[in-house]
Amino acid sequence: MAAWSLLAALLCVSSVACADELWPGVIWAPEPGVGWQYQLQGEIDTSVPADVYVVDLFDVDKSVVADVQTNDRHVVCYLNAGALEEWRPDAGDYPPELVGEPLRRWPGESWVDVRRTDLLEPIIAARIDLCSAKGFDAVDPDNLDGYLQDTGFPITADDQLRFNRMIARLAHDRGLGVGLKNDVEQIPELVDSFDFAVNERCFAEAECSTLQPFVDAGKAVLHIEYESPTSVFCPTTTALGFSSIRKSWDLGADREACPAA
Fold this sequence. Notes:
Layout: H1 3-11, H2 16-22, E1 36-38, E2 52-56, H3 62-68, E3 74-80, E4 83-85, E5 99-102, E6 109-112, H4 117-133, E7 138-142, H5 157-173, E8 177-181, H6 187-190, E9 196-200, H7 212-216, E10 221-225, H8 230-239, E11 243-246, E12 256-257
Parallel strand pairs: 1-2, 2-3, 3-7, 7-8, 8-9, 9-10, 10-11
Antiparallel strand pairs: 4-6, 5-6, 11-12
């Protein structure tokens, strides 16, 4: 980046318009049907035949990101946006009043009060800065549907929309793509703000049709099922244009991908 561009970046007010001026046309987004891998546990297996990898922000070193990116592959950083994970290095940055009820199934995780964007924005911005510093191409922010959960806070749909759009803005301000994780009920309001979708269990929940606006907009739907065999869900989701895989709940390297359309 030229010196004047670097100065502009330092002076840039957080806005998508400003980001578009600094990184014109650079923000990457996967296209419908792309092959992908979702691995959040264990040593990253870079031999998986996928063009897109989603891996953990904190646990994966910059050198691994660079290794995956060989041969025109792309890497997305997973971070927990709507919940606190007590083992993360920045867990102490969360004020106690932001921490709510624990998540079911995931020990050590608690919902956060997404109404308090004033307190959460600096924490999440620092995380997305780390995504950028490690060379990731995009962000996979998890738990963006707290308004539908037992969080311990009276979060409304409007609160969630404001928080989710803040996440998208923070990613775009740094030249990174961003995926909408689940939150299928708000897709009509959010599809224009996000560059792709990451969905878990839409087939099991009978809600895959709600993701069609992303494909219609030329944006990938990176889809995961956990219980159903691929022979059951692949015909449906492949026909919809999704990039579907089957994973075990431990989210290790093993995966089974649906055949390409």
